[in-house]
Design goal:
582 residues, alpha+beta, Topoisomerase I, domain 2, Topoisomerase I, domain 3, four-stranded antiparallel sheet, 15 helices, 39% helix, globular
């Protein structure tokens, strides 16, 4: 061939794939580069007519550096862990990497905070006030000493002054979607994991329905021709893309930018041409509505607050109730936001305190991460890349280090972190990982090609030196690490065994009924005393079976079938049970 053109995705991975094909198959580094953010005919033709004269060497070398780093760390550290646990007689697939380690440590630290948390009692005070209207107000602080309660009980039947404060506020539309924000919103609205959201986005991108999803940008540059896109969308979705609502000439934008791609936006192509599944339609509509809302007017709300200031035992206390009224919806007509209206009456002047409610409560431990909030935390700490964070979290689940919708570190995950913190804390050091990421960004942005290659070699040489030190330390303390890991492994096995144990077997009275899986991969309930006892019960063919804390009227435990994308349903597996299932 006389000429080569790289037309892979315009990102680090795409550039490296194209660059490797060039230099290893065609033995050249000379090529032109098509740059595009959508796979529409118009954008591809435009990219072909306006090709860059050379490959993006910065992207390629940054990608190559990341590959080597991940390979160095992943293969050596993962093998070290597997070798350690094998040393004590167990074979198990284990892994740790330069981002996996710090990510797991984040969840483990949170888990330890939760487990060590000790609840303390407090009291919440509410009063009911009345004149011609009535409202319930809450004390603006927690009562932490029980002997204070009696002072608040004396407020009943007392006359006091109330004041209603109002403030109108304009709320701007939310910024366009970068990948992380999109993953968080898809989880919030539809319960989709970040990895599932990325999988759907990739499908929508390849179908030409949306722009490239792996972006950090919150910008919509005029170069994407958003007016033409809106014109197309108004014909496809006249109710959503109502031109009477889309009054801005320029969209609202966020602060983040990405040199490679704009924010995620719909291309204006018709999604009806593809038979999208429900989850895919939901994600597409999320992108569609977010994009359109950026061109809509501000929402106008009225914040209302009823305030009572009353002296209690010589101290001025403040009681209040807050309400929101949406006066003009603006962009809220297009994009769903978790903004709930709460109507409050106007109460001013003299009021009587008709009732005092004092409720005892307990302080709550920190909330666990969801997969979406964990992705956001990794992004905030600059750990991993926008395109890899979801896969990193999924790997931690696959290895048995994490579990649950509300992300919980397993005993094994905790032991891995504790062992590494004790023997080689550098593996979990997020500062080291962050430094590598910043150095790779430096390669990406450097304009000197020779300097890019030199920087790559420098980073890798430094990484190899660190890794050799780590590996030697791990090898030296392998036996001790193995003993620590086997504790977590055994605790995890015991926990799974308990979760699968349902009840004593009613037939043989010796074994327990446990959840099992046959050779075809189907779940059933069988006796742990098999083959002496062959008592079995069928389970529904679909969904993952899980026991609940409930007991059926027949005495058998109630179970739950969890199926992806569907509401869990409860059932009794006793074939002689007469109760209807729900």
């Amino acid at each position: 061939a006389d000429e080569f053109v790289i037309a892979t995705d315009y990102d680090v991975e795409g550039e490296l794939i194209g660059f490797n094909v060039l230099r290893f198959i065609f033995k050249t580094e000379n090529a032109k580069r098509m740059k595009f953010s959508t796979l529409t005919k118009t954008d591809l033709e435009k990219a072909y007519k306006n090709m860059l004269a050379t490959p993006e060497f910065g992207l390629a070398y940054a990608g190559e550096t990341r590959h080597y780093l991940d390979w160095f760390y992943g293969i050596n550290l993962s093998r070290a862990l597997m070798s350690a646990i094998k040393n004590v007689g167990v074979f198990r697939i284990m892994s740790v990497g330069r981002v996996q380690g710090p990510a797991l440590a984040l969840v483990v630290d949170k888990e330890k905070d939760i487990r060590s948390f000790k609840s303390t009692p407090y009291w919440q005070v509410k009063i009911n006030i009345k004149n011609s209207h009535e409202a319930e107000l809450q004390l603006n602080r927690k009562i932490e000493k029980k002997d204070e309660i009696k002072n608040f009980e004396l407020l009943k039947d007392k006359e006091t002054e109330a004041k209603t404060e109002k403030e109108e506020k304009e709320i701007e539309p939310l910024h366009p979607f970068d990948l992380t924000t999109l993953q968080v919103e898809a989880y919030k609205f539809y319960g989709l994991t970040p990895s599932k959201t990325l999988e759907i986005l990739q499908k929508l991108y390849l179908a030409g329905l949306i722009s490239y999803p792996r972006t950090s940008s919150q910008k919509l540059p005029i170069a994407i021709n958003y007016n033409l896109i809106i014109e197309k969308l108004s014909k496809l979705f006249p109710k959503i893309a109502d031109k009477n609502l889309l009054i801005r000439k320029k969209p609202v934008e966020g602060s983040k930018d990405d040199p490679a791609h704009p924010s995620v936006y719909p291309t204006g192509e018709d999604p009806e041409k593809l038979k999208l599944l429900k989850e895919e339609k939901n994600v597409y509509e999320l992108v569609l509505r977010r994009f359109l809302s950026c061109f809509a007017d501000n929402a106008l709300i009225e914040d209302k607050k009823i305030v009572v200031r009353e002296s209690v035992n010589g101290k001025k206390e403040i009681f209040s109730a807050k309400g929101i009224k949406i006066k003009e919806k603006g962009w809220l007509e297009i994009y769903k936001a978790k903004l709930t209206e709460k109507e409050l009456p106007d109460i001013n002047g003299k009021v009587k305190i008709k009732k005092v409610d004092i409720e005892e409560k307990e302080t709550q431990p920190p909330k666990r991460y969801t997969q979406a909030s964990l992705i956001a935390e990794l992004s905030k700490r600059n750990l991993g890349t926008k395109g890899t964070r979801a896969n990193i979290i999924q790997t931690l689940f696959d290895r048995g280090y994490l579990k649950g919708k509300s992300v919980e570190a397993t005993d094994l995950g905790i032991k891995v972190v504790e062992s590494l913190q004790k023997h080689c804390p550098l593996i979990l050091d997020e500062n080291l990982t962050r430094e590598f990421e910043e150095e790779m960004e430096g390669i990406q942005t450097s304009k000197d090609v020779k300097k890019k290659k030199t920087e790559e070699e420098k980073i890798l040489k430094n990484a190899q030196k660190i890794l050799i030190d780590i590996s030697e330390k791990l090898k030296k303390e392998e036996k001790e690490i193995g003993k620590e890991l086997i504790e977590g492994h055994n605790e995890e096995r015991e926990q799974k065994k308990q979760e699968a144990t349902l009840m004593p077997c009613p037939l043989c009275k010796e074994g327990n009924l446990v959840i099992r899986k046959n050779k075809a991969g189907r779940f059933f309930v069988g006796c742990s005393n098999y083959p002496k006892c062959t008592n079995t019960y069928s389970l529904p063919p679909y969904g993952f079976p899980k026991k609940t804390d409930e007991v059926c009227e027949c005495g058998f435990p109630v179970m739950m079938a969890i199926q992806k994308g569907k509401k869990p349903w409860k059932f009794c597996f006793n074939r002689e049970c007469k109760k209807e299932q729900n």
